[in-house]
């Protein structure tokens, strides 16, 4: 059997180790990852290997040559012009694959039984078999579900935390029949997980998953790189070592001298031609390459030293990685998580702080303390984007220097000369961060349309009207007053897609930022009549005369925010009498307790002035809470139902989109008006995308997120929601109290349970496996439904916290209470069992 070794990866997240080295050639225990894979293939009698190359192909060809020195037959296929993807590169060598063949990733460490997988493939008569394994945290991998016959029924490539429905993942090893390649186009980029396997599933071809026992580590980032070394030393994975094991856990190369006073605590590996000086302490987990010199009195606590490293006297190295040819002078300290690229010089008594990365050929002066990456930028983050844009602690995570680099990374993904809208809330911290982000954008040749402090619905409206490429809005996070939230949107005003987020992350992590000449630096302009433009757009979607005839009185709580100031201006044009509260703009965010106090005050004022309704606008113009004429607040699920009922009454047989966890009152209301309901994932971007993609959507959102009216713009808009509601109340001749009284009586409760990140995937798989598939909906989390009625329970992993949310919904309050209690117990017991298993292991 032939094997295809996919070895074209550039290893972006392993930089600076991969700046001059392809990812499969990065050493693990002093041997390239690819060599460990070749040894695995050889142990399973697979000796004909075709390596597909793209990034720095000569490095691998020069090392392995024809493979004869390694006991195999090596040939190479190089993607010259463009990367063809995991499947495209295999399609490119289709003529060499005339029988069952194996595809294996060149950037993982494993000791799976490949012959068992091949036997399983043949026994099942499979066209394609994916080798699977179970991992504690499946977020970074392709998640897969198989049925009882191990036939694949569902998979999702690199899910977000809330999308996890299993902990069984794709390891990048496949056994394939040649005919499956006929499904792939020639000379085009294609991927096994995204393109080929979904197509085979759709065509009904036999597609199986073999759940392998044994060790597997995807060396995808720097922490995993270190962990794989430590696991290898502890024999958690079966590997062929390059050196003789002199004593248990102590592997030593040839021609190496170790001073008798040195102390070595196994497991440790030391390569050929090394020199270990007197008084050196080498603790367990240390990996030392060939031709390394360690000076007297140095202390090594689990560092990984590549070939040719020189370490001076009395140096302290702790769980760091130092690449080839680097010199570390005496009394230097390199702390945990540090990665130093090849051919660097670290001066005497220099200190490199935790998790700092140093790019190749850099020099750190004697006595220097380095606590940022030694390349343009700050401490590296693994992921920039969360469930909802980029967020972090104000002026701690989201700092001016971070924002400059983020702006430059975003701008580097756009064409030079592109225009971008930038807006913010009124807070001084947002102004500071937006100025830094604008500087980064302009530095890479992007022109700015600066809307300054304005509500986010106005920014989304102006984005397509100004004809710009995209937009950025900065504000204090709606739910976390000590955090900043930065959202990016496309030319339509919709939050950017995951693929665009990945491009920005790629530019940020690679530090691959465009620089333009002085003449090409971006310009900044300030569009005129922004609020007037928004008002005109507003009017096109309203029955203005109906609102005027009503002569409404409305009380508006600004909550000290810029968004509140706009709404009275708009309503006064329509003849509404607006009473405003808390009108001054405040720099400090409003706490949740203070917001509740203001809401109580709003109810009292509505009653006192006999207003038609009151509204508290928050989240920079996106979210709202209503107060009816009797002073009672309308929020959450009741607000969702009220808005859906009001809009579908005016637009029967239309469609509304709500998140997966919204109350079933929505479906009941839709049935009354012959309408349709689309359920989306729980995140705001999914609601925006649904309102844009599906036809006939008149309303999207919930009381939790705010509401989208796609005909005005694709974002949440509290201000338009209020104006549209006033129009509906007039036309339908009803009050909020009357509407509220006719809403369906549905019991909808939720409960939160703390759940470690590593348990979430296993929990979701357990729930899927222990319920009838006909009762399951896997839009987001695991939803167990009763097809005969609207009873359901939803277990939804939180996207940003170690939590699981449990929602129960029914017309029957007792059923909700019983079900919520039952699933709380089931989930809690499973979490405790998993944690006990982890401790015992």
From TrEMBL:
Major subcellular location class: cytoplasm
Alphabetized Pfam families for the sequence: LbH_EIF2B, NTP_transferase, PGM_PMM_I, PGM_PMM_II, PGM_PMM_III
Extent of the signal sequence: none
Gene3D superfamilies given in the database record: Alpha-D-Glucose-1,6-Bisphosphate, subunit A, domain 3, Alpha-D-phosphohexomutase, C-terminal domain, Hexapeptide repeat proteins, Spore Coat Polysaccharide Biosynthesis Protein SpsA, Chain A
SUPFAM superfamilies: Nucleotide-diphospho-sugar transferases, Phosphoglucomutase, C-terminal domain, Phosphoglucomutase, first 3 domains, Trimeric LpxA-like enzymes
GO cellular component: a single term: carboxysome
UniProt keywords, alphabetically: Cytoplasm, Initiation factor, Phosphoprotein, Protein biosynthesis, Transferase
Alpha-D-phosphohexomutase alpha/beta/alpha domain segment(s): 383-513, 533-631, 636-744
Domain Nucleotidyl transferase: 3-231
MF GO annotations: intramolecular phosphotransferase activity; structural constituent of carboxysome shell; transferase activity
EIF2B subunit epsilon/gamma LbH domain residues: 253-352
GO biological process: carbohydrate metabolic process
Subcellular location: Cytoplasm, Cytosol
Keyword Transferase: yes
UniProt family annotation: Belongs to the phosphohexose mutase family.
PANTHER family per record: SUGAR-1-PHOSPHATE GUANYL TRANSFERASE
Protein name: Nucleotidyl transferase
Species per Swiss-Prot/TrEMBL record: Aphanothece sacrum FPU1
């Amino acid at each position: 059997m032939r094997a295809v070794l996919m070895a074209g990866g550039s290893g972006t997240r392993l930089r600076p180790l991969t700046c001059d080295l392809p990812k499969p050639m990065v050493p693990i225990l002093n041997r390239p990852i690819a060599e460990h894979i070749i040894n695995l293939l050889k142990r399973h009698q697979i000796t004909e290997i075709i390596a597909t190359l793209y990034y720095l192909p000569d490095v691998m060809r020069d090392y392995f040559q024809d493979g004869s020195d390694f006991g195999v037959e090596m040939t190479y296929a190089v993607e010259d012009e463009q990367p063809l993807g995991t499947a495209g590169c295999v399609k490119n060598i289709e003529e060499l694959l005339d029988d069952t063949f194996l595809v294996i990733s060149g950037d993982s460490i494993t000791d799976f039984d490949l012959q068992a997988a091949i036997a399983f493939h043949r026994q099942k008569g499979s066209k394609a078999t994916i080798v699977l394994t179970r991992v504690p945290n499946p977020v970074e991998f392709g998640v897969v579900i198989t049925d009882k016959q191990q036939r694949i029924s569902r998979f999702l490539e690199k899910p977000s935390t809330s999308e996890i429905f299993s902990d069984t993942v794709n390891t990048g090893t496949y056994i394939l029949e040649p005919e499956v390649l006929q499904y792939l186009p020639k000379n085009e980029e294609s991927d096994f997980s995204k393109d080929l396997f979904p197509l085979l599933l759709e065509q009904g071809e036999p597609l199986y998953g073999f759940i392998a026992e044994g060790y597997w580590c995807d060396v995808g980032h720097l922490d995993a790189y270190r962990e794989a070394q430590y696991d290898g030393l502890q024999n958690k994975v079966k590997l062929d070592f390059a050196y003789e094991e002199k004593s248990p856990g102590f592997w030593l190369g040839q021609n190496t001298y170790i001073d008798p006073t040195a102390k070595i605590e196994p497991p440790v590996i030391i390569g050929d031609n090394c020199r270990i000086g007197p008084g050196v302490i080498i603790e367990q987990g240390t990996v030392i390459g060939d031709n390394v010199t360690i000076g007297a009195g140095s202390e090594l606590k689990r560092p990984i030293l590549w070939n040719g490293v020189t370490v001076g006297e009395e140096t302290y190295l702790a769980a760091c990685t130092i690449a080839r040819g680097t010199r570390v002078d005496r009394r230097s300290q390199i702390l945990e998580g540090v990665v130093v690229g090849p051919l660097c010089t670290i001066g005497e008594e220099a200190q490199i702080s935790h998790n700092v990365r140093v790019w190749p050929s850099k020099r750190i002066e004697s006595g220097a303390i380095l606590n940022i990456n030694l390349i343009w930028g700050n401490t590296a983050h693994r992921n920039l984007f969360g469930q909802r844009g980029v967020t972090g602690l104000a002026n701690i995570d989201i700092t001016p220097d971070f924002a400059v680099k983020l702006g430059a990374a975003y701008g580097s993904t756009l064409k030079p000369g592109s225009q971008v809208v930038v807006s913010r809330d009124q807070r001084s911290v947002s102004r500071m961060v937006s100025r830094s982000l604008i500087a980064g954008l302009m530095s890479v040749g992007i022109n700015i349309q600066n809307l300054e402090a304005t509500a986010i619905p106005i920014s989304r409206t102006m984005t397509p009207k100004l004809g710009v490429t995209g937009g950025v809005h900065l504000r204090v996070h709606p739910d976390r007053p000590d955090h900043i939230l930065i959202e990016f949107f496309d030319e339509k005003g919709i939050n950017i897609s995951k693929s665009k987020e990945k491009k920005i992350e790629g530019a940020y992590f690679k530090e691959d930022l465009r620089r333009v000449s002085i003449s090409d630096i971006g310009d900044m302009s300030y569009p005129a009549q922004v609020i007037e433009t928004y008002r005109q757009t507003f009017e096109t979607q309203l029955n203005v005369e109906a609102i005027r005839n009503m002569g409404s009185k409305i009380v508006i709580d600004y909550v000290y925010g810029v968004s509140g100031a706009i709404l009275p201006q708009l309503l006064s044009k329509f003849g509404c009498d607006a009473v405003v509260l808390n009108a001054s703009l405040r720099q400090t965010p409003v706490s949740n307790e203070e917001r509740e106090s203001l809401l109580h005050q709003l109810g009292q004022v509505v009653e006192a002035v006999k207003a038609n309704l009151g509204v508290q606008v928050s989240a920079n113009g996106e979210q709202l809470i209503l107060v009816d004429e009797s002073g009672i607040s309308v929020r959450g699920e009741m607000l969702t139902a009220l808005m859906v009922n009001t809009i579908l009454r005016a637009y029967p047989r239309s469609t509304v989109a709500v998140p997966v966890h919204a109350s079933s009152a929505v479906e009941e209301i839709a049935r009354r008006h012959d309408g349709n309901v689309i359920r989306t994932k729980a995140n705001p971007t999914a609601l925006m995308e649904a309102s844009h993609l599906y036809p006939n959507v008149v309303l999207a959102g919930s009381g939790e997120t705010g509401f989208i009216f796609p005909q005005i713009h694709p974002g949440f808009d509290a201000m338009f929601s209020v104006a549209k509601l006033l129009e509906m109340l007039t036309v339908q001749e009803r009050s909020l109290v009357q509407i509220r009284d006719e809403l369906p009586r549905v019991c909808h409760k939720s409960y939160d349970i703390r759940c470690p990140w590593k348990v979430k995937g296993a929990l979701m798989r357990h729930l899927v496996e222990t319920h009838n598939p006909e009762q399951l909906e896997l839009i987001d989390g695991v939803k167990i439904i009763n097809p005969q009625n609207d009873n359901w329970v939803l277990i939804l992993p939180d996207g940003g916290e170690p939590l699981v949310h449990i929602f129960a919904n029914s017309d029957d309050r007792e059923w909700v209470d019983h079900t919520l209690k039952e699933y709380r117990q089931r989930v809690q017991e499973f979490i405790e069992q998993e944690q006990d298993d982890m401790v015992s292991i």
